[in-house]
């Protein structure tokens, strides 16, 4: 009986721990960025936070490759606290750059796609951007969210008046049920 309780507790703890990891970003990066300042403060004084671990997200505005490096301009959006997915409907507090030491495909990381980024704030002089006014994050881990499908609006549009729909509902077609001509 004791081993049965131990097994039950073990599987229960695995289930609970597994339920906590719904973010595509690993727990170590989430923990490193847990005490990050607000995006408004980060973007106002980026040089004061060089080396700070951050977890940011948004919508890609532009993606460029140059000499084995990639640079993405991202419109910041706040992240959902449980999934780390950017909330696209929320207002933006600004823009930031994702700098990656490697090439990404600009067709895959195209304009309008949603992305979550984990990394460190770096000096603009390490990159090809030479302005100290931009927040630049060196991407250590990032996740491109799949496009969500929109609901289908291709249903039959009623062409009858409301009173006609009461007596004969939209989609009621007796000839398709076998009650066509001569059924009586």
UniProtKB/TrEMBL annotation:
The lineage of its organism: Bacteria, Pseudomonadati, Verrucomicrobiota, Methylacidiphilae, Methylacidiphilales. PROSITE patterns: PROKAR_LIPOPROTEIN (PS51257). It comes from Methylacidiphilum kamchatkense Kam1. PANTHER family: OUTER MEMBRANE PROTEIN SLP (PTHR37530:SF1). It comes from the Bacteria. This is Starvation-inducible protein. Pfam families: Slp (PF03843).
């Amino acid at each position: 009986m004791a081993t049965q309780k131990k097994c039950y507790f073990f599987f229960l703890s695995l289930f609970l721990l597994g339920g906590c990891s719904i973010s595509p970003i690993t727990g170590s990066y989430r923990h490193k960025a847990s005490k990050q300042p607000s995006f408004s403060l980060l973007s106002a004084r980026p040089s004061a936070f060089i080396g700070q671990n951050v977890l940011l997200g948004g919508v890609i505005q532009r993606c460029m490759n140059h000499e084995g490096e990639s640079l993405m301009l991202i419109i910041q959006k706040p992240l959902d606290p449980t999934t780390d997915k950017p909330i696209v409907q929320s207002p933006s507090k600004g823009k930031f750059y994702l700098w990656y030491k490697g090439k990404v495909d600009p067709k895959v990381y195209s304009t309008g796609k949603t992305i979550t980024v984990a990394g460190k704030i770096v000096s603009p002089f390490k990159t090809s951007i030479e302005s100290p006014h931009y927040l630049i994050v060196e991407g250590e881990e990032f996740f491109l969210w799949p496009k969500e499908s929109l609901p289908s609006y291709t249903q039959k549009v009623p062409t009858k008046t409301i009173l006609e729909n009461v007596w004969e509902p939209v989609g009621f077609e007796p000839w398709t049920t076998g009650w066509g001509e001569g059924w009586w």
